[in-house]
Amino acid sequence: MKIGFIGLGNMGAPMAANLAKAGHDVSGFDLHAPCPDGVSKVSSGIEAATGQDVVITMLPNGTILRAVADEIIPVMTKDAVFLDCSTVDVESARAVAEQAETADLMAVDAPVSGGVGGASGGTLTFMAGGTEAGFAKVNPLFDIMGQKAVHCGASGAGQSAKICNNMILGVTMIATCEAFALADKLGLDRQKMFDVVSTSSGYSWTMNAYCPAPGVGPTSPADNDYQPGFAAELMLKDLRLSQQAAEAVDADTPMGHSATDLYEQFVEKEGGEGMDFSAMLPRFEKRHRG
Ligand code: NAD
Q1: What pLDDT sits at residue 290?
Q2: Fewer beta carbons under 10 A from the terminal one: N or C of the chain?
Q3: Of all helices (H) and strands (E), which one includes residue 4?
Q4: Cα(57) to centroid of ligand 1, in Å?
Q5: What is the chain's percent helix, strand, coil content, to nearest 5?
Q6: Whose CA is nearest to atom 20 of ligand 1?
Q7: Residues in contact with ligand 1 (CB, 6 Å cut-off)
Q8: Does residue 57 contact residue 86 with C-beta atoms inside 8 Å?
């Protein structure tokens, strides 16, 4: 396929490189980042989008996505797919899809889970929203960039699934960290705490696969001085998107709200920026009640 790729940052560059390696003809554009091997560098979003079967965007947020969409939709070939893999607000995803469909394009929102490691290794999970026809056309690309793609429903459904998943992740990480900090103060050995919880009803991905306590459970960012992994500020971004969506549809999400407040405090006031999101454990360790 002829593919345009806009946004060659930490995630976009390895995704574009994997598509090129698989034999696709990929033209890439980024305002600042260099072009990875195998991808032809072009000098504007318009150039990257013109004459392509699929245009992929991997951008920081919904405002930038909307601006790029305004620029490239008018030059895209009819029936081409606008595939946005960024994590953005549901409203922007739906607005861009509507704009694309009005211009006789197909639109798929497909945010990813799996981080930079998943992007490099081609093992991302895609959660997609859009029509059956749009999903079918880009599904072979998901097979190259990832190991699983779920068609979640109409436009915006991919972003909805992503922020619900990450709201659970943020809340669960906080619960796991505060439980470890409580266990410490109760004199429980961390390894014993892991042995019990990881095989009892308190188990979770954050405990079992990504344990926030160094030296306990499988290797995780905790074992590397809390270098990310998944940075606390990215967790905060996704939690904020969950609360923006909850506000828009009048959903009561008290735990998501608390998790957003805690990550905001951690990132903006307590030096958590640049640390893995599991560094909530050393944060709780140092604190007292009240
Ligand atoms: P990044 O900041 O490394 O990359 C974004 C790139 O977009 C940058 O290189 C920037 O120069 C470029 N850009 C910005 N505006 C542009 C424009 N108008 N035209 C062309 N390029 C432009 O971010 P990232 O870590 O690659 O994340 C990209 C998206 O993926 C975000 O929405 C993020 O939330 C999501 N995501 C990231 C991770 C992760 O672990 N990094 C995991 C899952 C999802």
Answers
A1: 79
A2: C
A3: strand 2-6
A4: 9
A5: 50, 15, 35
A6: 30
A7: 6-12, 29-33, 45, 58-60, 64, 68, 86-87, 112, 115-116, 230, 234, 237
A8: yes
Cis geometry, peptide bond prior to residue 229 (ω within 30 degrees of 0): yes
**Cα 139 to averaged position of ligand 1 atoms, centre (Å):** 22
User: Which ranges of 6-146 would DSSP assign to H, the alpha helix?
Assistant: 12-21, 45-49, 62-72, 90-102, 115-121, 132-145
Q: Report the residue among 58, 112, 233 best suited for mutation to probe ligand 1: largest number of ligand atoms under 8 A from its CB.
A: 58
pLDDT digits (tens, 9 = 90+) for 110-146: 999 998 989 999 999 999 999 999 999 999 999 999 9
pLDDT tens, position by position, 164-198: 999 999 999 999 999 999 999 999 999 999 999 99
Quick one: pLDDT at residue 45? 98
* pTM exceeds 0.85: yes
For residue 170, the surrounding DSSP H or E stretch is helix 157-185
Among residues 43, 40, 31, the alpha carbon closest in space to that of 2 is found at 40
